[in-house]
Known about the structure:
The protein is mostly helical. The relative contact order is 0.14. Helix 1 runs antiparallel to helix 2. It has a single domain (2-391), classed as Rhopdopsin 7-helix transmembrane proteins (Up-down Bundle), CATH 1.20.1070. The chain is built from 14 helices and two strands, in the order βααααααβαααααααα. It is globular and about 70 Å long. This is Alpha-1B adrenergic receptor. It is found in: Cell membrane; Cytoplasm; Membrane, Caveola; Nucleus membrane.
Amino acid sequence: MVFxxxxxxxxxxxxxxxxxxxxxxxxxxxxxxxxxxxxSVACNRHLRIPTNYFIxxxxxxxxxxxxxxxxxxxxxxxxxxxxxxxxxCDIWAAVDVLCCTASILSLCAISIDRYIGVRYSLQxxxxxxxxxxxxxxxxxxxxxxxxxxxxxxxxKEPAPKDDKVCCITEEPFYALFSSLGSFYIPLIVIxxxxxxxxxxxxxxxxxxxxxVMKEMSDSKELTLRIHYKNIHEDTLNSTKSKSxxxxxxxxxxxxxxxxxxxxxxxxGIVVGMFILCWLPFFIALPLGSMxxxxxxxxxxxxxxxxxxxxxxxxxxxxxxxxxxxxxxxxIRILKCQCHQRKRLGWWTYNYRTWNRGSFEHSRKDxxxxxxxxxxxxxxxxxxxxxxxxxxxxxxxMCES
Length: 400
């Protein structure tokens, strides 16, 4: 697709100012929003978990796009021609592909991470370590560079003679290769992972509901036995010890699982918006490259092109709307309060000295953030009283 005109058009000042203000505001919002996402994780220790590393990587890709690609794309649309020379046109197009590919590969990594989080919620900290997350992020950028570097090495159509015309590479085989590598193959992985997340989450929710009801029934039975029978003290202590083991508690599993589902919901929204924004472009590009009769009009293609770019400013809106932790972090940063909340490890459990006020605050935040995206999952416990009874039997980990 060719951007620019061989015959330079007369500049419409009114149109140029209007388009410039709209695109300028859009670019500024994308830059500020993605910087907020990065600072939220950097300034809040409890947000520094592997899942959020992938979110930061996505924000870095969008921020790089907003800084290095969008201003020149906006200038091209305002002026109606390319004003930066042939060499920079090639670099601009390559960086564009690099950033967009890094974004969708980051989403691909996020979908795999969420599947592991939901499928193996208790084992997740040992399966997805900081080192493994960093290696995955490096792989994302290496693959993105491999896909984007082709045109710089000559895999493209002959360049137009006029340097004021800048073309997106329409070489059919490269257009097909980049579309498959940058969008369609990762999209298949993402959809498969989220289908599996849905299936596993639905099955696990059902099992946890059954486990919670059984644990409540066993607790009532134990109370009756203690009241009406003289049970040996050692046996009673052993039973209590087992019931207070946080790792064996159904409530602990429910707590961890609900948080993983909430993260999956938020990132599922991110993936959905990415697909809506970029799918039209990745349909139009390969079809237009291989079949000239299917090329969309230039104005329509520009709309499709900027619809993909629009995705870069959506994610910073999704996070605070879906995650209370990110919302609080955004507010603190906007108030110039870079808050380093201490991430606590396991608290030593002592039933007699347990601070219920602190626990209630942590539990309230967790339950607020732990809402489900599956039908019926909010009915896991029948009442707030049951939630308190179950959750008060084990220590909690303060993490996002």
